[in-house]
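Final report, Chapter 2: Outcomes

The project's central promise was a pipeline that accepts a single protein chain and returns its three-dimensional structure in a standardized token representation, suitable for archiving and comparison. That pipeline is now operational. To close this chapter, we reproduce one record exactly as it appears in the project archive, with the input sequence first and the structure output second.
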Amino acid sequence: MTRAAVSRRRFLQLAGAGMLALTGTALTGCGNSTSGEGSDKGSKLAAIKSRGHLNAGVKKDVPGYGYYDTAKGRFEGMEVDLCYQIAAAVFGVSYKEARAQELVEFTDVTPKTRGPLIDNGQLDVVAATYTITDERKKSWDFSTPYRTDYVGLMVKKRSGFTSIEDLDGKVIGVSQGATTQSLIEQMIKDNGFSCKPEFRAFSGYPIIKSSLDAGNIDVFAMDRSTLAGYMNETVELLQPEVKFGEQGYGVATKKGCDLSAVVDQVICDRLADGWLDQEVKTWGLV
């Protein structure tokens, strides 16, 4: 980081306490975010400003959403950009300034680790294709959904599968900590399919795809927009016309903290001004 950037960050640290009264709990969103604490004691906003940057959890293996480009040495994707929008709101700067001054530090997360890293205070926000569910809302605050997706079933073209019924006794690979298995089981029940597939959980998406390519599993199941980053001429979606498992992605924060309302307002504003729609186009999301 340049000397000028350090100076700017230090200025924001010193100004943080004074700015707190102008942001945070006074903001209300278009969803049902919790307004959180109203004083500096235990304030997440005050802690972030004192620290000088936002700690954000994103995916490292979901092209278009959160992906770590080893050649460039940085995270990129729509959710990465969204974290800079949140930092801009917290520090009272523009989106471009938030990026230029590196006001976000990223940590890669998995479905298994993202919640606990919020709980232990290591992360302020998680924007990692995190599906909002009633059960999860008991433990964390979630913003208004910024993206809606459905579950897809990726199979090898050579498999010969033409129907979900063909998955009887077959092995479906899913991500640890995700809701995918339960959504597939519910879809099978709702549609009256008689198949009974098996499930195998993996720690990351690349290993699921490699297991599919190696023939160790028969299906790679995940959100369709995630699968899009792993599509090639050898694979296809099985019965894509069967839409199921609708899920809204939200930014997660610590339950009841004063950051939650700020995050929700950012999502509402970026939905309203079309920025998120443009991000979908920019990153080629489906």
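Archive annotation: Residues 3-147+248-282 form a domain with the D-Maltodextrin-Binding Protein; domain 2 fold (CATH 3.40.190.10).
This record, like all others produced under the grant, will remain available to the consortium after the project formally closes.
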